[in-house]
């Protein structure tokens, strides 16, 4: 079997690609390199540069490589920026998914693992969300991911598509010092770049209705996340029925201030973060249960918060110019 990983040269996608290869599964990657890096793709993995909006390129990739399943990670993922650029977000995330599903149907590819988001929940009025928690996204990004789930549901009703969607929020750390987060918007790279440059990191808002006033999230290690993507793909390939949606959650979550404390401890750099205004589209708290994923997708929090910070800091130190 061969699986296509869309966005497979990105931070999460490259970890998923490496997880497939470690499991002995053949992989092909398609990525526009808008935010990905070709050097993140293993040398023995075919790489196709292009966008999932290019239907003919996607169809050709599926057929030329005899693809049997797809992990769909390509898209625009920044909730705050999506408020400013809603049309770009919908084009990349909704139109891109429609185009992929259309090409898959023509090529006869019937297995799909979709990278969704805990942003689909908005700010739920519960301590811990489950897959049954009502969705109420608060940003175009969250809305686009929920629409993506609907597209899979409707396509499955009309065709032989077998699918599952994985919802998660903040993905951090590095599974290898050669694979790292280069996002200009994600908390870990922003904080670590600031420290490496001698600047003081900042917290966006300390007046949220949380114990310490800062946002509370599930922070999950990227290698743990990649492992469950690969497990989901194997389950679909084996013909197992999966839930339509799984949360890859920690069950408890940590705050941004707690992240700053962990960074201070791990790096040995003393600092007091600057308090900046809130970012648009940031809910106060999202913490999800991972019980269903633990049951079906080999999901577990195998890395502590200190592990997450240490692996990210090591990668940043090794690649200061690129990160």
UniProtKB/TrEMBL annotation:
<keyword id="KW-0520">NAD</keyword>
<protein>
    <recommendedName>
        <fullName>UDP-glucose 4-epimerase</fullName>
        <ecNumber>5.1.3.2</ecNumber>
    </recommendedName>
</protein>
<dbReference type="InterPro" id="IPR005886">
    <property type="entry name" value="UDP_G4E"/>
</dbReference>
<feature type="domain" description="NAD-dependent epimerase/dehydratase">
    <location>
        <begin position="3"/>
        <end position="249"/>
    </location>
</feature>
<dbReference type="InterPro" id="IPR001509">
    <property type="entry name" value="Epimerase_deHydtase"/>
</dbReference>
<keyword id="KW-0119">Carbohydrate metabolism</keyword>
<keyword id="KW-0413">Isomerase</keyword>
<dbReference type="GO" id="GO:0033499">
    <property type="term" value="P:galactose catabolic process via UDP-galactose, Leloir pathway"/>
</dbReference>
<dbReference type="InterPro" id="IPR036291">
    <property type="entry name" value="NAD(P)-bd_dom_sf"/>
</dbReference>
<dbReference type="GO" id="GO:0003978">
    <property type="term" value="F:UDP-glucose 4-epimerase activity"/>
</dbReference>
<comment type="similarity">
    <text>Belongs to the NAD(P)-dependent epimerase/dehydratase family.</text>
</comment>
<dbReference type="Pfam" id="PF01370">
    <property type="entry name" value="Epimerase"/>
</dbReference>
<comment type="pathway">
    <text>Carbohydrate metabolism; galactose metabolism.</text>
</comment>
């Amino acid at each position: 079997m061969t699986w296509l990983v869309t966005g497979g040269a990105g931070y999460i996608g490259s970890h998923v690609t490496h997880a497939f290869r470690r499991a002995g599964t053949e992989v092909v990657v398609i990525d526009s390199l808008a935010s990905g890096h070709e050097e993140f793709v293993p040398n023995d993995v075919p790489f196709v540069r292009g966008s999932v909006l290019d239907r003919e390129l996607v169809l050709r990739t599926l057929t030329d490589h005899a693809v049997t399943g797809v992990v769909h990670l390509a898209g625009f993922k920044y909730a705050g920026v999506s408020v400013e650029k809603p049309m770009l977000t919908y084009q990349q995330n909704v139109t891109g998914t429609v185009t992929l599903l259309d090409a898959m149907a023509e090529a006869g590819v019937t297995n799909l693992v979709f990278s969704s988001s805990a942003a689909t929940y908005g700010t739920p009025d519960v301590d811990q969300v489950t897959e049954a928690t009502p969705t109420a996204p608060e940003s175009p990004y969250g809305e686009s991911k929920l629409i993506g789930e609907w597209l899979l549901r409707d396509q499955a009703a009309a065709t032989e598509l077998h699918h599952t969607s994985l919802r998660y929020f903040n993905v951090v750390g590095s599974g290898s010092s050669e694979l790292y987060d280069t996002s200009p918007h994600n908390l870990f790279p922003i904080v670590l770049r600031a420290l490496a440059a001698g600047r003081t990191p900042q917290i966006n808002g300390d007046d949220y209705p949380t114990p310490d006033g800062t946002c509370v999230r599930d922070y999950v290690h990227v290698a743990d996340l990649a492992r469950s993507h690969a497990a989901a793909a194997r389950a679909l390939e084996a013909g197992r029925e999966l839930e339509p949606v799984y949360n890859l959650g920690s069950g408890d979550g940590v705050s941004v201030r707690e992240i700053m404390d962990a960074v201070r401890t791990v790096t040995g750099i003393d600092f007091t973060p600057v308090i900046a205004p809130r970012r648009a589209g940031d809910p106060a708290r999202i913490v999800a249960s991972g019980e269903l994923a633990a049951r079906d997708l080999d999901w577990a929090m195998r890395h502590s918060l200190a592990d997450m910070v240490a692996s990210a800091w090591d990668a940043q130190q090794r690649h200061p110019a690129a990160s």
